[in-house]
Design a protein that fits this description.
By secondary structure, this protein is of the alpha/beta class. The chain is 25% helix and 41% strand. The strands form three sheets. A five-stranded parallel beta sheet has the order 5-4-8-9-10, sandwiched between helices. Strands 1-2-3-11 form a four-stranded antiparallel beta sheet. The chain binds 1-O-pyrophosphono-5-O-phosphono-alpha-D-ribofuranose and adenine. 1-O-pyrophosphono-5-O-phosphono-alpha-D-ribofuranose binds next to strand 8 and helix 4. It is an enzyme of class 2 (transferase).
Length: 179
């Protein structure tokens, strides 16, 4: 039978389905897509903790609604690091990324327009979850390549050991489930 983890975040409660990552590890899947109420409330709470910044960056895909909503509330722009190059991606820069939810390695790309938005700016990196930190590391590398200055790294949830990191801020911890 499907099992759930009860999450309290930003004044809301959600039941997260427990999903298998491997023979030894399960995660509670945190998917903000579709959940406008949770996205708006989480954005508001992260903004309260955020340092002054000029632009946000997130990774495709689950960080996008959060970055959009934070940028809307803050009145600033946001950049999405894409997982593929499109016909309209001019002069892409790239970095390799691995994530706890995806087998094998992927890449994150920024086009020239996104690089221009980041260059010389105070950049806040945002994501829905920070777990192994690999996605965050890839975003850091991209911001540095683009000539941006990272002023903070934020997430709604810090999963597993990420909760002990001192270089990020987040709203709630999320446990990993070892089998
Ligand atoms: O700290 P990490 O281990 O890198 O995990 C965190 C990343 O994993 C998730 O994305 P995912 O790779 O599942 O891709 P998706 O957003 O496209 O579903 C999440 O949105 C973060 O970007
Ligand atoms: N618990 C989780 N739910 C969704 N995506 C994730 N990426 C890393 N941990 C995750």
């Amino acid at each position: 039978m499907q099992q759930y983890y009860t999450l309290h975040v930003a004044g809301l409660t959600r039941e997260l389905p427990i999903c298998s990552v491997s023979d030894t590890l399960d995660i509670a899947a945190f998917i903000m897509f579709s959940d406008v109420e949770l996205t708006v409330a989480s954005a508001k709470e992260i903004i309260k903790k955020a340092p002054p910044c000029d632009v946000l960056i997130t990774a495709e895909s689950k960080g996008i609604p959060l970055a959009y909503e934070m940028a809307r509330q803050m009145g600033i722009r946001y950049v999405v690091a894409r997982k593929s190059v499109k016909v309209y991606t001019i002069d892409p820069i790239e970095v390799e990324v691995q994530s706890i939810t995806t087998k094998g390695s992927q890449k994150l790309y920024l086009g020239r327009d996104e690089v221009e938005l980041l260059n010389g700016k105070r950049v806040l990196i945002v994501d829905d979850v920070i777990s192994t930190g690999e996605s965050l590391k890839a975003l850091e590398t991209l911001v540095e390549k683009a000539g941006g200055k990272i002023v903070g790294q934020a997430a709604v949830l810090a999963e597993g050991d990420a909760a002990d990191r001192k270089d990020i801020f987040y709203l709630e911890k999320l446990p990993l489930f070892f089998k």
